[in-house]
Design a protein that fits this description.
alpha/beta, binds nicotinamide-adenine-dinucleotide
Length: 331
């Protein structure tokens, strides 16, 4: 495996996301330095990392030599300074609090190398606000993963006002090099792309259960055995294109009005009060019939990896340079 363009990477914050980032970078042959403010949490992350490697070795996904190499590449650091030494890329993965992110970035501004890229896993905040007034602002960027990034490749990339184009380009190139799929946003919007779309769907799913239209299992079945099967291959626009013989224009010409009526009929923002959450919890547990949380995560990860492999082996036969057709407008 060739050395990646940024060979030393620091992961700051080793919770659910940080520990998974460590695996992404180790897998891509980076030297990885992991730091967590809470030593116990760093220990838990390390135990998770070891267990993940062992499971993959026993399951035949990784060889003993690969697991040894991954282990060798990761150093679990007791101080932030140690983690940042020589790091060319930093993946901040601390808690989702604006104040905490602000203080972590202020520390990174002081302690990281003067050319290091400082990327945040934030799901919600504007990096321009987090890094306002910092000398390092031109090197700061959002690189928002999907949980867990070692299984799901999309990373939303969003520069701040001061982030240079070079930093955006290098971040995207590096993320692609380590096996992720960077997706660039043109401007900040709360929730970015993924969580906005997820929120739109979850809002309606909760309303359908809360208002007694269907139970949790029925609502989930419509996604897992219906919409979700297509969505693993194509997004809402690609799917619309396949849903009418004449393609997306014909689809929205025929169904646009029906969509408008439905959209006007969608439910309100749920309260998520205790009774509602309990109702959703009971419905979800009944649906999952005793499977443990750990078993569920392992099953999810194994099948998602299988779907990715299937897609890789069967790429869409796109014709680069083909005429996009009448009405297609360049971005
Ligand atoms: N969990 C998800 O589904 C998900 C998905 C995408 C992005 N994110 C984002 O990733 C980030 C991390 O989320 P998470 O779910 O891993 O959170 P988490 O609470 O599991 O982990 C955060 C970690 O940061 C540590 N920490 C606190 N202060 C610190 C400091 N000053 N320096 C270093 N470490 C510190 C905590 O001890 C903890 O281990 C958040 O910004 C979150 O929004 C989460």
């Amino acid at each position: 495996m060739t050395a990646p363009m940024m060979s030393t990477v620091a992961v700051v914050g080793a919770g659910v996301i940080g520990r998974s980032w460590a695996l992404v970078f180790a897998r891509a042959a980076c030297n990885v330095r992991v730091y967590d403010f809470v030593p116990e949490q760093a220990k838990r992350a390390r135990a998770w990392f070891e267990a993940e490697l062992d499971r993959n070795r026993v399951g035949g996904v990784l060889t003993a030599a690969q697991t040894a190499a991954y282990r060798e590449r990761v150093r679990w650091c007791g101080t932030l300074e140690d983690a940042l030494a020589n790091a060319e890329y930093v993946q901040e993965s601390g808690p989702e609090s604006f104040e905490l992110k602000e203080s972590i970035f202020a520390e990174l501004d002081q302690a990281a190398g003067s050319e290091a890229i400082l990327a945040s896993s934030t799901s919600a905040h504007d990096i321009a606000e987090i890094t306002a007034g910092l000398a390092a602002a031109r090197r700061c960027i959002v690189a928002h993963p999907v949980n867990p990034p070692h299984v799901i490749p999309v990373v939303e990339v969003l520069p701040g006002r001061e982030t240079t184009n070079e930093v955006v380009e290098r971040t995207c190139a590096f993320l692609a090099e380590v096996g992720q799929t960077p997706v660039r946003l043109k401007r900040y919007v709360p929730g970015f792309l993924l969580n906005r779309m997820q929120a739109a769907l979850v809002r309606e799913a909760v309303n359908l259960v809360d208002s007694g239209v269907a139970d949790v299992d029925a609502v989930d079945a419509v996604i897992r055995d219906g919409l979700g099967l297509r969505w693993a291959l194509l997004g809402p626009f690609g799917v619309a294109h396949t849903n009418a013989d004449g393609g997306i224009r014909s689809y929205f010409a025929r169904y646009g009005e029906a969509y408008r009526d439905l959209m006007d009929d969608l439910g309100p923002t749920p309260t998520f009060d205790a009774a509602l959450v309990e109702h959703l919890g009971r419905g979800t547990e009944a649906m999952l019939r005793g499977v443990s949380h750990a078993e569920l995560l392992r099953w999810r990860d194994r099948l998602v990896i299988g779907i990715r492999e299937l897609k890789r082996a069967n790429p869409l036969p796109v014709r680069d340079g083909a005429d996009p057709g009448p009405g297609a407008k360049p971005d």
